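Consider the record:
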Amino acid sequence: MIDLCASVFDWATYRRTKGAVKLQPPAGSRRLPALLRGDHRGRRHEVTVARTLTFPPGTILVLDRGYVDFAWFAELTRQGVFFVTRLKDNAVYAVLGTRDVPRRGPVVRDELITLTGVRTAARCPYPLRVVEVTDPTSGDPLVFLTNQLTFGSTTIARIYKDRWQIELLFKALNNT
């Protein structure tokens, strides 16, 4: 979200005295987003906007936890679109199988899963994947959820890590 002065940009007012524009980076190349979508007024949640977009098969969406929507993930999977996001702590799933992880490096586990929660299983019937890494800076676990079943676990972790480059882009845009 890029903050704007509501008195100058009255078309962007989303509170009495605040204005904003949201830019959505739902699809991207290795370096820069391929698409930025502006949403005036900043009122609509990002996932609401993201659900309205279409992506070519093979696209990889890198999403924060605010985008977790299992019905949307099922639709993306049907369309051949991949996603990588953080797994919410309360997700309920069963492990279908495990994959080997590199002996060295931050990857702790790599599992093929199916959602079993009452609210989630019917929304996304496809097998998904959980990749857990240890954050080298803090030592905290980072658990990723993806429908990309063929990339190596370190590649999945790297895709999410590179998401921060997009965050830095938005920070730079917001400071201009």
